[in-house]
Amino acid sequence: MVFIADDIQLVKSLRQLKGYSSRKFLQKLPHRNWTRRRLNRLLAKIDINKGWQNEFQAVGVRTLHARLITSPRESAVGEWRQHLHAFISSM
User: How many angstroms separate the CA atoms of 10 and 42, rounded?
Assistant: First the structure.
């Protein structure tokens, strides 16, 4: 069966909001004459169109992770150097 615009919108919103898989769609909406293969194709298209958002989010997560991991180390080394320099200067 061919998906109509309303079906596509329903599938897209449930996929993005609740993460439904093709099996979940068939389980929750048995009265629709959808096949698993057709749903998988549609879900792949939906995921591809959303891929650019995931890529930007992943870059943001990597950047944030790098800042969280490296910043405390760098600041600790910087503080250690300042204290060492002050200790040596005081001698």
Answer: 12
Tokens for 32, please give them: 């629709």
Given the structure tokens 């600041």, which residue do they identify? Answer: 75
Report how far apart the first and last C-alpha atoms of the chain are (Å, whole number). 85
Residues of the chain with pLDDT under 50: none
Helix axes 5-18, 36-90, angle to 10 degrees: 30
Res 90: pLDDT = 72
Alpha carbons 72 and 37: distance in angstroms, whole number = 49
By CB atoms closer than 10 A (0-12, 13-18, 19+), residue 71 is: exposed
